[in-house]
Specification:
By secondary structure, the protein is an alpha/beta fold. Helices cover 33% and strands 28% of the residues. Strand 12 (237-240) and strand 13 form a beta hairpin.
């Protein structure tokens, strides 16, 4: 039984509390928050959990083995480093921190103290996303040309980070997971309308190795909740929509035939269409699972086994490097910015 302290009982915190307070392999011993009304909600929903506004006293509890951080991004560094220095394993919500320097320092500290540092890149724990990775890795789509990713909704509007750090972090982590690669460069534009200097919508193109492009549209200022991801290969194409619970994944037997290069002259729409393969659509069966539960269980498994997490420090650093480069590109009117390896 691993005893956990959850720091942050706001928007996402209650979901983490519910998953870790399972009385099977873990239980939440403490919930920490500066907002007394949130602590009162925890007292009502989870009367057996102790609450506090004092993080230091909770970190001094020798029974607490792990700390889960669900606070604003700008606070991640201070809370996580304090927990690591107190000898606790840490799961911190995405993104890992708000600067590259902080993420590197957090990763190095975790290695020094011999504790697990994991980032909540929840989409890499989605069963449909993991199945999609199999299709990509096994080259069933052929050579991947590009990935299009749209993530929009109306709110919640953040005041600490822009829509890239809040929303695009999901897609960057997922694209890197699928491609087994780190981004090389990014060009982005964005608009800040609600709060000055904080982009509410971003449009970005990321270059990956092997001439793969990843195009992102992320916004919390949109009338429709959209989770639309499309992977285009030279043999097949794939769509992933986690909002569609019944059919999150589809494989399209569509591509441009090799014979197109042998057609000397296309003189009609009909002959042009003959060069395009428009086959069946396959809807794979995706095992029923709860990505957040899978993520939480993976964190606990890593604590027990000592194994490196799927979304650990290196993955968290890579995502933040891309986000920082994206913000820099937006500040420089869309100039393509290289991402340091």
């Amino acid at each position: 039984m691993i005893k956990v302290a959850v720091v942050g009982a706001g928007h996402w915190g209650p979901n983490l509390i519910g998953n870790f307070h399972n009385h099977g392999n873990s239980e939440v011993a403490w919930v920490v928050d500066q907002n007394e009304s949130r602590l009162n909600v925890v007292r009502t929903r989870f009367p057996d959990i102790k609450v506090s506004s004092d993080l230091a006293s909770v970190l001094d509890d020798p029974n607490v083995e792990a700390v889960v951080v669900a606070t604003p991004t700008t606070t991640h560094y201070d809370i996580t480093t304090a927990a690591l220095r107190a000898g606790k394993h840490v799961l911190v919500e995405k993104p890992l921190a708000d600067t590259v320097e902080k993420t590197i320092a957090m990763h190095e500290l975790a290695q020094q103290v011999g504790k697990i540092l994991m980032v909540g890149h929840v989409f890499v724990y989605n069963a449909a996303a993991q199945l999609a990775k199999q299709y990509i890795t096994n080259q069933e789509l052929g050579r991947v040309y590009y990935i299009s990713m749209v993530r929009t909704n109306l709110g919640p509007i953040r005041v600490d980070v822009n829509a890239a750090f809040d929303l695009a972090a999901h897609d960057i982590s997922l694209a890197s997971y699928w491609l087994d690669a780190e981004p090389l460069s990014v060009a982005a534009t964005g608009g800040a309308w609600i709060n000055k200097g904080i982009e509410d919508a971003i449009f970005a193109t990321i270059r990956y190795p092997n001439d793969i492009l990843v195009n992102l549209h992320a916004s919390w200022l949109n009338p429709v909740k959209t989770r639309d991801i499309r992977v285009v290969g030279d043999k097949r194409m794939l769509t992933f929509d986690d909002v569609n619970a019944s059919e999150p994944l589809r494989i399209f037997d569509k591509h441009v035939d090799d014979e197109v290069a042998q057609v000397p002259f296309v003189d009609s729409i009909a002959s042009f269409r003959m060069t395009v393969r428009d086959g069946d659509i396959k809807v794979p069966r995706v095992p029923t699972s709860q990505p957040l539960k899978v993520e939480c269980d993976h964190f606990l498994d890593c604590i027990v086994s000592g194994a490196a997490p799927m979304s650990g420090g290196p993955e968290g650093i890579s995502v933040v490097k891309t986000l920082v480069a994206m913000s820099r590109s937006m500040a420089e009117k869309g100039r393509e910015v290289e991402i340091d390896a």
